[in-house]
């Protein structure tokens, strides 16, 4: 005890600056180890994708050690840029000048893979830089070299007027306009039609990539198979408020605004004309990003206001529209997007998107270690390598493609009713239930008629009574229809709004045939009527030999108005004993044929007049034959979007 007391006394006798310095150092080290060094948090709905990330991106299970002497968010952001500028070598790109439909030009900088992995197919990663970035920026070069080293081809998309390319038209770019990106992606797929395409978007590039992934272009053409978004300003309204705060944030904002103004000034020959919608002199005097967007961006891209543009460009409320496996990396101290602005609750409810959150890291910083002067083991690049290497290996991305399908139930179907529809909780499905006013509803209406004394007490002929009762049943039946509306079971959101707006029939009353409004009668009569009235379909038959030697028939019907190969192909899977000549299949094929779709019916083993070649048929859960059929169809129609319709067991 005396020893401790004496040591404390000796320490207190030291000069005050020394005591203050030692105390501050101890406090700083304590703070660093307690609050700065932590493993990243993963926000994703519990399920296969979250488990896949945990198992195949092992770095997320490790603690992230931000560089001790510069882990403050803004210092980390600035120093990361400076350090990488010195240590990252030039990337040996091959430049391609790509001409857009309106005559504009952009530069695509390519790097071929450094190594080829036997476990991996040909893969290309498209990189979208930040607000004023291009292929020569330090974080873009570092990422490109890391991706190349991992065995992937990479192409950097330099936006209009960026990367040393002069503007050819009076148009630059914005955070949500995907027109140029759509053309670039189509061009990449035309050059490498068999490549798996991944995407990396950083900062504003993440917004642009996210907008594309949530767009109809991605939904229809399935261009991207996986993506990664880094340091994304998820909510642009909140971001502009954050970066306009004094003093260091405001300096960053002013610097970026100056870069944007320089872009316009460097293209003054195209952008300074008085005929444009913007005032050139006012644009180049913008002091903040919001001012620049108000003076130029919203006028170029015809937005009503800056806030309207920011709402459209923001991603925080669009995560559920992204249908490919997507890993996002954000820092809780990002000066552009604070932890409170991260859409973590949304991510926790989505199966195919995960947000990794580090305590420190800044904006595109993520420096680590005491001596961060080597880009070979930087945290950000290790995550990129581990994620894409695992998601592309053995086509793992296919497990996490978000499929949208609609299931239609009859409320009083003898086999599967409304209760089963309401209990069908698969997150990626949508159930539509139509009610028809069954016998129970008609009986209730009969009771109401009698209570209202609309019947007579006198004895009437039996035939009169029977016809009157039938009339009452029919009247009650349609009365029940008027009091019941269709029910759409779907989580409130963009898809439900889409269905209501674009598929108006789901909001209409379904009027089943009077002679078959009972579930059992309807089923039997539908078979009989369709068998009589549905014309024969003349298919082009193809016999497909499967890997195990088995054979099955694929029946094709090409569109009535033959067009390009990118017309939608609809695959029809019949019910348990159905085939291409079943009446409901023929009726469906005829309707789709008239609308211009390419139809293909998958006849299961032993069905459609094809004898078994092996001792194997089919089941409701085994998808091996379907997998082979789908791959075969994609080889025949590689550019065609594929839709599918499954009836009963086929569903």
UniProtKB/TrEMBL annotation:
It is found in: Membrane. It is an enzyme of class 3 (hydrolase). The keyword Hydrolase applies. The keyword Magnesium does not apply. Its EC number is 3.1.1.4. It catalyses: 1-octadecanoyl-2-pentanoyl-sn-glycero-3-phosphocholine + H2O = pentanoate + 1-octadecanoyl-sn-glycero-3-phosphocholine + H(+); 1,2-ditetradecanoyl-sn-glycero-3-phosphocholine + H2O = 1-tetradecanoyl-sn-glycero-3-phosphocholine + tetradecanoate + H(+); 1-octadecanoyl-2-hexanoyl-sn-glycero-3-phosphocholine + H2O = hexanoate + 1-octadecanoyl-sn-glycero-3-phosphocholine + H(+); 1-tetradecanoyl-2-(5Z,8Z,11Z,14Z-eicosatetraenoyl)-sn-glycero-3-phosphocholine + H2O = 2-(5Z,8Z,11Z,14Z)-eicosatetraenoyl-sn-glycero-3-phosphocholine + tetradecanoate + H(+). The chain crosses the membrane at residues 18-37, 458-480. Gene3D superfamilies: alpha/beta hydrolase (3.40.50.1820). GO terms for molecular function: acetylesterase activity; monoacylglycerol lipase activity; phospholipase A2 activity. One of its GO terms (cellular component) is membrane. PANTHER family: ABHYDROLASE DOMAIN-CONTAINING PROTEIN (PTHR10794), ALPHA_BETA HYDROLASE 1, ISOFORM A (PTHR10794:SF63). Belongs to the AB hydrolase superfamily. AB hydrolase 4 family. Phospholipase that may play a role in phospholipids remodeling. May selectively cleave myristate (C14)-containing phosphatidylcholines through its predominant phospholipase 1 activity, cleaving preferentially acyl groups in sn1 position. In parallel, may have a minor phospholipase 2 activity acting on acyl groups in position sn2. In addition to (C14)-containing phosphatidylcholines, may also act on other medium-chain-containing and oxidatively truncated phospholipids. This is Phospholipase ABHD3. It comes from Aphis glycines.
């Amino acid at each position: 005890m005396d020893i401790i007391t004496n040591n404390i006394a000796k320490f207190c006798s030291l000069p005050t600056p020394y005591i203050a310095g030692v105390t501050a150092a101890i406090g700083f080290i304590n703070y660093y180890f307690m609050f700065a060094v932590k493993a990243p948090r993963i926000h994703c709905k519990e399920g296969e994708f979250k488990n896949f990330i945990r198992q195949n991106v092992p770095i997320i299970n490790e603690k992230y050690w931000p560089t001790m002497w510069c882990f403050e968010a803004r210092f980390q952001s600035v120093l990361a840029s400076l350090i990488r500028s010195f240590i990252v070598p030039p990337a040996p790109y091959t430049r391609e000048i790509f001409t857009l439909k309106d005559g504009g030009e952009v530069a695509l900088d390519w790097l071929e893979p450094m190594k080829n992995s036997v476990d991996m197919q040909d893969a290309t990663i498209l990189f979208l830089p930040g607000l004023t970035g291009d292929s020569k920026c330090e974080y873009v070069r570092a990422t490109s070299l890391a991706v190349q080293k991992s065995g992937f081809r990479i192409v950097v998309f330099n936006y209009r007027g960026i990367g040393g390319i002069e503007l050819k038209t009076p148009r630059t770019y914005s955070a949500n306009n995907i027109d140029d990106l759509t053309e670039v992606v189509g061009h990449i797929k035309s050059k490498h039609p068999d490549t798996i395409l991944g995407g990396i978007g950083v900062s504003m590039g993440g917004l642009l990539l996210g907008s594309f992934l949530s767009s109809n272009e991605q939904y229809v053409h399935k261009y991207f198979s996986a993506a990664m978004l880094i340091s994304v300003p998820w909510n642009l309204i909140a971001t502009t408020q954050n970066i306009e705060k004094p003093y260091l944030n405001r300096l960053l904002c002013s610097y970026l605004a100056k870069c944007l103004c320089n872009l316009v000034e460097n293209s003054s020959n195209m952008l300074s004309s008085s005929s444009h919608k913007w005032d050139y002199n006012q644009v180049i005097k913008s002091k903040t990003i919001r001012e620049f967007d108000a003076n130029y961006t919203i006028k170029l891209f015809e937005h009503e206001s800056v806030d309207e543009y920011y709402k459209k460009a923001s991603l925080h409320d669009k995560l559920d529209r992204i249908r490919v496996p997507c890993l996002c990396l954000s820092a809780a101290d990002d000066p552009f997007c604070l932890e409170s602005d991260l859409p973590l609750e949304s991510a926790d409810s989505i199966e195919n998107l995960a947000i990794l959150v580090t305590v420190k890291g800044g904006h595109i910083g993520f420096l680590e270690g005491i001596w961060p002067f080597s880009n070979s083991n930087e945290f950000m690049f290790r995550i990129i390598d581990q994620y894409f290497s695992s998601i592309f290996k053995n086509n793992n991305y296919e497990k996490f493609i978000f499929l949208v399908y609609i299931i239609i139930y009859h409320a009083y179907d003898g086999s599967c009713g409304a209760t089963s529809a309401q209990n069908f909780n698969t997150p990626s499905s949508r159930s539509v239930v139509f009610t028809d006013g069954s016998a129970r509803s008609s009986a209730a209406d009969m009771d109401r008629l009698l209570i209202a004394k609309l019947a007579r007490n006198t004895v009437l002929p039996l035939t009169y009574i029977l016809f009157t009762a039938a009339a009452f049943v029919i009247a009650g039946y349609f009365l029940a229809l008027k009091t019941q509306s269709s029910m759409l079971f779907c989580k409130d959101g963009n898809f439900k709004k889409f269905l209501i707006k674009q598929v108006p029939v789901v909001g209409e009353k379904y009027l089943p045939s009077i002679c078959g409004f009972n579930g059992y009668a309807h089923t039997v009569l539908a078979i009989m009527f369709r068998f009589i009235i549905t014309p024969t379909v003349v298919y082009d038959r193809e016999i497909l030999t499967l890997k195990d030697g088995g054979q099955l028939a694929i029946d094709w019907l090409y569109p009535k108005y033959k067009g390009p190969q990118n017309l939608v192909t609809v695959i029809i899977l019949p019910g348990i004993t159905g085939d291409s000549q079943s009446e409901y299949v023929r009726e469906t094929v005829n309707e789709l044929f008239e609308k211009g779709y390419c139809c293909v019916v998958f006849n299961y083993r032993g069905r459609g007049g094809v004898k078994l070649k092996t001792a194997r048929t089919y089941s409701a859960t085994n998808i091996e034959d379907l997998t082979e059929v789908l791959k075969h169809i994609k080889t025949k129609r590689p550019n065609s979007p594929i839709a599918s319709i499954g009836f009963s067991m086929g569903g």
